[in-house]
Amino acid sequence: MPQTKIAGIGKYVPENVVTNNDLTAFIDTSDEWIQERTGIKERRYAHRTDETTTTMAVKAAEIALQRAGITAQEVDFIIFATLSPDYYFPGCGVLVQRAMKMKEIGALDIRNQCSGFVYAISVADQFIKTGMYKNILVIGSEKHSFGLDFSTRGRNISVIFGDGAGAVVLQPTEQPGILSTHLHSDGDSAEVLAMYNPGTHANHWVDTPVATFDDAPRGEMFMSHSMIDSAQNFPYMDGPAVFKKAVVKFPEVIMEALHQNNLQTSDIDLLIPHQANLRIAQFVQQKLQLSDDKVFNNIEKYGNTTAASIPIALCEAWEAGKIKEGDLVCLAAFGSGFTWGSALLRW
Ligand code: ACO
């Protein structure tokens, strides 16, 4: 059976740097509050009109393809992870297919938020191992800056997010590559970290914790004015609830991957956690007793870029020479859903 390797990796972050102090011009917040709670110093915001989730993805993908030594026409499947697609539908995968003039290949969007990239890698791994595809382009890209609540109501979440994209090309290999992937979900907390609209839940099948919207009659537009007024078109997060679950599930899913492969935490050469919050990553590091050089964080520069955070961090770690051939690399993510997962790979 073929194994799966990362043959090429690329990233793109917008030029526009937005520091915490820059945010204080339009949000009631402070550099001190943001750094102390999240470790974030600055993030990138995409150009309002000229950059989209897809255009950023294409830039990251071009680098990944070039490093893998293949052309866009040789890609035989696209998997695109994002929570901020250009359109509500269709997904961004087909927009990449069009923009990069690819063949009429399959394109799949994955809507698993912070763990979207790990889910995408896992799906791609199955396609490679069964021999169905040979060059899969996996992308994580987000343009959060366009849809954040910059009022005091949404400041706990709006200061966290940043924009950017990362991409990898997965190919078959004889050597061990992706050793295993592990995916989980617990929908009990679906409303703890969510954006309710556009959605079709207005008939109250869900008792949302911030529900103040009027009933929208069937057939009405996706978003009524009352929904917009009640901020249901912005991400909502119960931060402490997310924190509490994340610090349990991150270590658990990393240990699950290690156990399955008869490995121990001391075997990890580099852990790349989803860049949710530096405090969460530090907690996980402490719990697994990993030294500083075994955990890669770049949240201070880019904030939380959701599905893009792992491929951006992986790319940056690789470019900095922190990943060598044969290294054991662990990717782990936790986020909205809740969904979480890990991928263990030999580089
Ligand atoms: N600036 C200043 N004050 C703020 C801000 C802000 N940006 N946001 C919230 N506050 C205030 C609140 O109004 C509140 O004030 P009060 O005590 O007067 O009522 C106070 O700070 C505490 O608010 P909390 O929401 O309880 O803030 P908390 O201390 O929990 O920190 C944070 C918020 C950083 C989001 C934290 O809960 C956290 O780290 N949660 C983990 C979730 C996470 O990292 N999510 C990332 C996205 S999801 C993912 O990727 C997994």
UniProtKB/TrEMBL annotation:
Record's keyword annotation contains Oxidoreductase: no
EC number(s) stated in the UniProt entry for this protein: 2.3.1.180
Domain Beta-ketoacyl-[acyl-carrier-protein] synthase III N-terminal: 108-187
Gene3D superfamilies: 3.40.47.10
UniProt key word Amino-acid biosynthesis: no
Occurrences of domain Beta-ketoacyl-[acyl-carrier-protein] synthase III C-terminal (ranges): 258-347
Chief localisation class: cytoplasm
Pathway(s) served: Lipid metabolism; fatty acid biosynthesis
Alphabetical list of Pfam families matching this protein: ACP_syn_III, ACP_syn_III_C
Residue ranges, annotated region (ACP-binding): 275-279
Record localization: Cytoplasm
Active site, UniProt feature: C114, H274, N304
UniProt entry keywords in alphabetical sequence: Acyltransferase, Cytoplasm, Fatty acid biosynthesis, Fatty acid metabolism, Lipid biosynthesis, Lipid metabolism, Multifunctional enzyme, Transferase
Top-level class of the enzyme under EC nomenclature: transferase
Catalytic reactions of this protein: malonyl-[ACP] + acetyl-CoA + H(+) = 3-oxobutanoyl-[ACP] + CO2 + CoA
Function according to Swiss-Prot or TrEMBL: Catalyzes the condensation reaction of fatty acid synthesis by the addition to an acyl acceptor of two carbons from malonyl-ACP. Catalyzes the first condensation reaction which initiates fatty acid synthesis and may therefore play a role in governing the total rate of fatty acid production. Possesses both acetoacetyl-ACP synthase and acetyl transacylase activities. Its substrate specificity determines the biosynthesis of branched-chain and/or straight-chain of fatty acids.
Quaternary assembly: Homodimer.
Family (UniProt): Belongs to the thiolase-like superfamily. FabH family.
Entry comment, domain topic: The last Arg residue of the ACP-binding site is essential for the weak association between ACP/AcpP and FabH.
The protein's name: Beta-ketoacyl-[acyl-carrier-protein] synthase III
Source species: Ferruginibacter yonginensis
Top-level taxonomy: Bacteria, Pseudomonadati, Bacteroidota, Chitinophagia, Chitinophagales
